Every structure is written in C-alpha cells, then in structure tokens.
Amino acid sequence: MLVSKPPIGSQWIFEVKWDGYRLAVHKEPAGVRIITRGGHDWADRFPAIAQAAAAMDAETLILDGEAVVLDEQGRSDFGALQQALGGRGGKRRAGEALFYAFDLLYLNGHDLTRMPLHDRRAMLEAICHVPGGVIRLSEEIGGDGAQLLKVACNMGLEGIIGKKLDKPYRSGRLGDWVKAKCVQSEGFVIVGYEPSRDALGGIGRLLLAARKGDALVYVGGVGTGFTARSGTALRRQLDAIAIPKPAIDVGKRKGVFVKPIVVAEVEFRAWTRDGKLRHASFKGLREDADAATIYQIKQ
C-alpha cells in the first residue's frame, strides 16, 4: 500500500525499497524454482540466484524478495536489471543479479505465514548468513520513518517499506506493509499527445520535452494522473494549438503534435538510462510557460 508519509510507532520496522523484480524463490527436493508475480519460473534467467538457493542450509524453503542489479554506488538499478535480461521481452540470463530476501514463508516443511513478522525475520536472518553472497538479507532499519525516507531520497534510492512486526504474512493491500516513495516533480513542455478512445478525456499519453542547453529534447510521456474532466479540457486546449509536424524529434511516434508552449507539472520517480521519465504522473499545468519553469537537463 502506497502512503504519502511513513507510519509512526514502535510496531513498525523499515527496509530499503528495492528497484527490481519481485520474486519468490522455492527450494524443493526436485530443485529450485524462481517464480515471478505472473507465475513464470525464471530459474534459468537467474542462474546465480538459483545456485545460491540450492546451497542454502534448508531442505525446503520459500523466500520472498527482490532480484536487483546494483550500480557503482550500491543502489538498485532497474534499468541495469532490464539490460541484463535483454530488455523488455528479452530472454537473456542475468547472472550478475542479486536477491535481497525480506521474508521467509516456508521452511523445512513448515508454513510460516501465520507467524508474526518478527519471528519470521529471526528465522530469515538465521539462514541468510553469508556476507556478500548472491542471496542477501534485506536489512531492517530502525528509527524515525520520516527521517529514514529523507535519507533514502538524498541517497537516490527508490524509497522505504514499512512493516508491522506483529502481523502474519497476508497478500493484498491490507496496510500491514506500506511503501513511501521518493518522488520528484518538475515542469515539462507538452509537444503532443497520443489519442485514445479508452483513456479519460481521450488522451492516452502526453509527449513531453525538457530543455538541454537552448534546445528542447524528448523525455518520454505520461499517461496517468488525468480525470475525465481535466483530460477533456486539456485535449481541447492542445487541439487549439495543433501543428502538422512535431516541433522536436520524437522518433517514430504518431499522435497529435502541438506548439511547445504549454508546460505540465509531472511527478516521476527516476530516469531511465536513455533519458526518459520513469513512473510519471500528470499533476496539472503550470501557469507560466517561461524557460524558468521547464526542467533543465544537465549537459
């Protein structure tokens, strides 16, 4: 469950929010399976993790955690993980990926999901005891959640996860686990939109640009954050300033292109390696479309 502020209270612990693929590692007598959220077995795509799981001191287990690739500063890098796997839809193996385990659901024939988190954590710590190994413990961080989030954001991390120590393992958004993300918000010029009959207001995705020196460069799009009312009003406003061709290079994208004079306020979590916005959400329009309100990319 996403929250705007971390919870307060001694019943909460916090962990780093890893930016990777959520996986369940199953060690069984027949071998190791690494199951994605979609139910696919990716043991062959994470061979180092599978090998490390097979060597763990347990007959059977199920670990809940995140596969990540770390950058030079030790931060999880989703773009690097995707690149290691060959991109979206790729079939490559991510041999350099690590697995940060944050819960233990099953151990040596025993279902642990009804146990409180503090007991499951103690058992998890006992089996994730190899420093620097491929399978690592997602460390528990004590202290004030708001301060921890501030530190995480300053370090360029994705955010933090808060968990209630006395709760069993339950699926769904029940409030036992909450996440607080580090979100950036900046102004970007709208250079067009992709129409959609199914989207609110008829806008499937806004095409955005930022400044780089004296020029505008394409930085991706945003397709969430609209209401039916705001989307309809925005589309009418953009249709009134439509132009035949895009004002900047947007690749082979098709859509309705507009004069680059309207600036949108957009929340986003990070940048991709090729300079595009990740997890962007539309907040509204800036009142003044002057150069000072448009995000400037460092050269």
UniProtKB/TrEMBL annotation:
ATP-dependent DNA ligase family profile domain boundaries: 99-181
InterPro entries: ATP-dep_DNA_ligase, DNA_ligase_ATP-dep_C, DNA_ligase_ATP-dep_cent, LigD_ligase_dom, NA-bd_OB-fold
Superkingdom of origin: Bacteria
Claim: Ligase is one of the keywords in the record: yes
Molecular-function GO terms, alphabetical: ATP binding; DNA ligase (ATP) activity
SUPFAM superfamilies tied to this protein: DNA ligase/mRNA capping enzyme, catalytic domain, Nucleic acid-binding proteins
EC number: 6.5.1.1
GO biological process, one term: DNA recombination
Pfam annotation, one family: DNA_ligase_A_M
Enzyme class: ligase
Similarity comment: family membership: Belongs to the ATP-dependent DNA ligase family.
Protein name: DNA ligase (ATP)
